[in-house]
UniProtKB/TrEMBL annotation:
Signal peptide: none annotated. This is Palmitoyltransferase. One of its GO terms (cellular component) is endoplasmic reticulum. It catalyses: L-cysteinyl-[protein] + hexadecanoyl-CoA = S-hexadecanoyl-L-cysteinyl-[protein] + CoA. Its EC number is 2.3.1.225. One of its GO terms (biological process) is protein targeting to membrane. Belongs to the DHHC palmitoyltransferase family. Keywords: Acyltransferase, Golgi apparatus, Lipoprotein, Membrane, Palmitate, Transferase, Transmembrane, Transmembrane helix. It is found in: Golgi apparatus, trans-Golgi network membrane. One of its GO terms (molecular function) is protein-cysteine S-palmitoyltransferase activity.
Amino acid sequence: MVLYFCCRDKRWLKDKPPKSGCQSPVLGAMIDNLEISMIPALVLLPLLLRVAALHYLLGITILTTLPGLVLWYYYATHRRKRRTLFFLTLALYSLAYMYYLFMTEILPRGDVSQLQVCTVTTGMILTIGSLIQTKRGPGVVTASLLEARSQSQDKDSTHVNGAIQSAASSSAGSAAELQTTEATLTTKWSRCPVCKIMRPPRAGHCRTCGSCVQRLDHHCIWINSCVGQANHRSFLLTLSVFVLTSLYGIKLVLCSLCPRQYLMTALLYCPGVYSQSSTALCFTCAWYSGIVTGGLLYLLVVQVLNISFNVTEREAQLALRNKTGQSRLWGLVIDTGEYSRGFYQNWVEFLTMTDASVSPRSSLTDLV
């Protein structure tokens, strides 16, 4: 009997757990992708933050070395994995831990109103909701996508040809414009050398995911997914809501811990904050949140600039490699000049684009 349970335990550790009929897809995906090696990191994070709260010199030392420790642990335990939930789990755990400290340490001090608590909670819920929407998929290129596009293109060609014939008698300029539209709609797709399937313009192959993605921007390790045509807007929304919520939460924490200090100088000088362990921990976590928020704020700025110039991160990297793009705004964005139609039109295309595999459209935004 003991031997039976030992073999069964080994089989459970090596293989995936059996699927249950009442098990939800989300729970099943979490169990299938469970990474036991994440447990030490999740245990050490609050421990390191509490050690950093003992003295400001310890705080400076631990917070400056923490990113290096995280990367070292990641490469030591996840080096052979192409896709991993390491950074997503760490980000969600950090977010939940910061919210827990806010509710248990800052709220009882009486310096935060119910409206401010509701604002922070709403920001948390919106961040999780937009993250779930982002995780639904970036818009993977499938073999059936070309067939659906061809059917839509045939209808568009018939419509455009009829419009050109009717416009030829009235205006040569309108005919030329419609011919340009037809040429754009009939742009040839390229074959992926890895997937061996036809893919639309601006699509790219992700080596991490092993598939082609429509309008591939980049593979984000923080969400363990690609950012493409289908989830780019929700990804931008997730970044925006998280940064705004985090900055607002840091402001509330500093105003509660350092009411006599200016907000801009409270992170650098807050007298008496290390007199109590609870206030020192909250102050240290405010620093930790500030470091994470600073990194994501930089990513948000780069994303906004790329959208304004109608260029993806993948296209910017290719332009740098091939020396075909121009560096703008102190190197924050690479302008390829290939798809840009002006600030307003670039944002209109970004906000109105849809996943072609779900809803094929006869519009120029399909090529974006």
